[in-house]
Amino acid sequence: MIRPVILCGGDGTRLWPASRRGLPKQFMPLHDSTLFKDTLERARLLAPEAEPLVLCNQEHRFLAASQMQEVGCSSGPAGATILLEPCGRNTAPAVAAAALLTEAEDPLLLILPSDHRLDPTPLQTALASSLPAARSGCIITFGIIPNAPETGYGYIKRGEPLNREIFRVERFVEKPDTLMAQGFIDSGDYFWNSGMFLASASTLIQEFEVHAPDILQACRAALESKRSDLDFIRLGEEAFVACRSESLDYAIMEHTARSAVVPLPAAWSDLGSWDSLYAVEAKDAAGNALVGDVAVEDCADSLVLAQSRLVAAVGLRDMVLVETPDAVLAAPRARAQEVKKIAAALLKAGRKEPLEHAKVYRPWGSFEGVALSERFQVKRIVVAPGKRLSLQKHHHRAEHWVVVRGTAKVTVGDATQLIHEDQSTYISIGQVHRLENPGKIPLELIEIQTGSYLGEDDIVRLDDLYGRVECGEEPQP
How far apart are CA 318 and CA 334, in angstroms? Predict the structure, then answer.
C-alpha cells in the first residue's frame, strides 16, 4: 500500500506579502484553489486506496483541517491523520515521525511537499515504475528534467542505471550559480530536486538509525509523548523541540547507499519566489502576468497582483508589483528571491506584517480590521455556518455587534437571543459572552470595540470547542 505523506510546515517568506506565517503559501488562495488542496487532490489520484498523513505546524491545524474538508478529505479516526509539529524542524524530523507512526503497517510512503505546482500525470507513470525498487529497499527521489538553468533549485546527478527508468544517485548539488547550472543542463545527467520521495517506512527508519540516529530518537520520544486533540495528534513538545532542524537531503539522502532517482518530464514549480509564480501564470501579449483588479499601460514581462483594490502601473519592465490590504511590494523580477530579507527585517523590527494578514483566519471563520485608533477598533467578523466562538470575557474592552448578514445566536451572561440582520447587541466590560452561527449561510457582523486596551490577549476563555487554551500559544478570539 502507498500512504501519501504531505508536508506543509513551511512559512513561504519569499512570497511575502501574500504569504505570511499565519497564512503561508501552501494555504493561501491562488485563483480558485490552494497549493495544499491541489496536493490533496494529487495524493488522491496517486494513492486512492489510502488516506493521507498530513504534517503541519500546530498554528495551521485549523487551516489544514478546513481545506481538507473542502476537498472531501475528512480527518480523524476514520479518515486522514493530521500530525502536529509544535515548531518547525525541517523535513527530516517530519519524515522520521511519519515513518515511526506507520511502522507497524510498513507502507510505502509517498512524500509530497504541499507547496508545489505539478502536472500529476507524468508522476503517476513514474510512481508505477518505481514501486518494485521502493519495495526492494530503495529510497526513490523524483528528479524533474530541467528546462532552464535555475539557480533557486537544488540538483541531483544521476549515476549508474538500475534499469531503463531508474538510476542511482551520484550526488546532490545545492543551488548552483547560473554558469554551473547551465553546465548541468548541457550534460543531461542532472535533474531538479523536487523534494518528492518514495520509500517504505522500514527503509527510512533503518537509514535514520544509521545516518541520523539523534533525529530518530527525538521523534520516537515525541511520538511516545503524543496526545490526541480533537481530530489531531500532537507530537510531544519537549522532545520535538529538542530535535535538530535538518532537511531529509542532508540527513539521509546525501549519505545513504539506497538512494535512486527517477527522471520526471513534468511541468513543475515549487513556487519559491514571485519570479517562479510569474513563470507559471498566464501572460498577455506583452508578457505580463496580471492577477486581480489590475490596469497596465506600456508594461512588459512583469507580474502585477492585486488583492484588495485597483492597482495601476505604467512603464514597468521585468518587475514584480504585489498589493495586499496592508502592504505593497515592488521589486525587479531578477531579485525576487531577496524578498525574504525584507520579511526577516520586518520580523526583527517587531512588525506584525510578516506574521498575519489584515484578514486573520480562525477555526470558526475569520476577522479583519477595518479601523483602529487609541481607544476603539472596528472589525468585520465572519462566522461559518454551525460554528461558534469560545465562551469568553474581556477585562479592558466592551463590544458592540451589528449583524449585516445571517443570524447570530448571542449569549451574554445567562441570557441567549437571536440577532437578525440590521439588529445589534452590546457586551460590557467583564460580561461573559459567546457568538454562534446557527444558520446555513455565513454570519457577517461588524464589531466595534472600545476600551483602554484592545489587544488580542485580553481574552479569558471559559469554554472553547477548539481546545485553544494551550501553553505557549498566543490567545485567539
Answer: 8
Separation CA 322–CA 1 (nearest Å): 43
**Torsions phi, psi for 215 (to 5 deg):** -65, -45
CA 12/CA 30 separation, integer angstroms: 14
Confidence bin at 477 (pLDDT 50/70/90): very low
**Exposed/middle/buried for 464, CB within 10 Å: 0-12, 13-18, 19+?**
middle
3-state secondary structure of 63: helix
Q: Which has the closest alpha carbon to 378: 406, 404, 402? A: 402
DSSP state of 338: G
Report the alpha-carbon distance of residue 356 to residue 88 in Å, rounded.
17
Closest CA to 142 of 110, 114, 99: 110
Which ranges in 136-236 belong to alpha helices (H)? 178-187, 201-211, 213-224
Q: What is the separation of C-alpha 85 from the centre of its chain, rounded to a whole number of angstroms?
A: 13
What is the side-by-side order of every strand in the sheet holding 327-332? 289-291, 303-306, 319-324, 327-332
Contact 437, 383 (CB under 8 A): yes
207-226: per-residue pLDDT in tens?
Answer: 999 999 999 999 999 999 99
On whether the CB atoms of residues 71 and 32 are closer than 8 A, the answer is no
Q: Residue 11's pLDDT is what?
A: 80
List the beta bridge partners of residue 83. 55, 233
Q: Report the distance separating Cα 153 and Cα 194, nearest Å.
A: 8
239-243, 283-287, 368-372, 467-471 — which is least confidently predicted?
A: 467-471
| Terminal Cα distance for the chain, rounded | 42
* DSSP structure string for 383-394: E-TT-BPPEEE-
Set of cell numbers at residue 49: 486506496
CB of 12 closer than 8 Å to CB of 21: no
Strands 167-173 and 415-419: unpaired
